[in-house]
């Protein structure tokens, strides 16, 4: 072996670690350090309404509280309502989001892009049936009834996608790519 080959060090690639959301088993209590509160219930059925009411009751005992109830964040009118209320928030606001996993992840993404810090936000998922999936090929985010490791058709580019164990927090969606690309 030459002296050059002996001095070459191998790069150690760490094993892949899934980047998956960790949802609490029960709703976290209201952060009493907040100066105002925004409770967002989006989809998620009756359980989401129960959690939103409990959070609203707790928050009203601490400071000014706004409750926003939305059917889905995909609806243009609902999204506009949410963005209007969010634009009126001030420093010190604590935001609590409850609903189905798809909508909660999408709302958390909007909050992050608006500058919310992780310690200013609480979330609770009442329905894990659907997830947001981001197609790496056509750049579309869509609602899918699958999970990491699963396959789903992209409604935009029609590819069959494999959903990866990676949640892009800023996008609020799981990354997916062509499931057949490795066989080409």
Folded structure, characterized:
The protein has 2 domains: 92 residues; 53 residues, Rubrerythrin, domain 2. The chain is 25% helix and 30% strand. The strands form 2 sheets. A 5-stranded mixed sheet has the order 6-5-9-8-7, covered by helices on one side. Strands 2-1-3-4 form a 4-stranded parallel sheet, sandwiched between helices. Strand 1, helix 2 and strand 2 form a beta-alpha-beta unit. The longest helix is centred in the N-terminal third of the chain and has 16 residues. The protein is globular and about 60 Å long.
Annotation keywords:
five-stranded mixed beta sheet; four-stranded parallel beta sheet; 9 strands; globular
Short description:
The chain is α/β, with parallel strands linked by helices and 184 residues long. It is 25% helix and 30% strand.
- Tertiary shape: globular
Write down the oligomeric state.
single chain
Q: What order do the strands of the largest sheet run in, or round the barrel if closed? A: 6-5-9-8-7
The portion of residues forming beta strands comes to: 25-35%
How does the major sheet shape up?
Answer: 5 strands, mixed
Distance between the termini: 38 Å
Which class of secondary structure composition applies to the elements?
A: alpha/beta
Topology:
Layout: H1 3-7, E1 36-42, H2 45-60, E2 65-70, H3 76-87, E3 93-100, H4 101-113, E4 121-127, E5 131-135, E6 141-144, E7 151-153, E8 160-168, E9 173-178
Parallel strand pairs: 1-2, 1-3, 3-4, 5-9
Antiparallel strand pairs: 5-6, 7-8, 8-9
């Amino acid at each position: 072996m030459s002296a050059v080959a002996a001095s070459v060090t191998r790069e150690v690639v760490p094993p892949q670690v899934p980047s998956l959301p960790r949802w609490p088993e029960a709703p976290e209590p209201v952060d009493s350090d907040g100066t105002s509160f925004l409770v967002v219930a989006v989809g998620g059925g009756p359980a989401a309404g129960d959690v939103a009411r409990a959070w609203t009751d707790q928050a009203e005992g601490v400071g000014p509280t706004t409750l926003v109830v939305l059917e889905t964040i995909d609806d243009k009118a609902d999204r506009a309502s949410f963005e209007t209320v969010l634009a009126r928030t001030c420093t010190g606001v604590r935001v609590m989001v409850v609903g189905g996993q798809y909508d909660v992840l999408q709302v958390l993404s909007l909050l992050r892009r608006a500058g919310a810090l992780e310690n200013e936000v609480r979330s609770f998922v009442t329905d894990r049936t659907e997830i947001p999936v981001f197609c790496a090929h056509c750049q579309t985010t869509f609602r899918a009834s699958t999970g990491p490791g699963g396959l789903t058709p992209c409604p935009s580019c029609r590819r069959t996608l494999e959903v990866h164990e990676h949640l892009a927090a800023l996008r609020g969606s799981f990354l997916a790519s062509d499931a057949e690309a490795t066989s080409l």
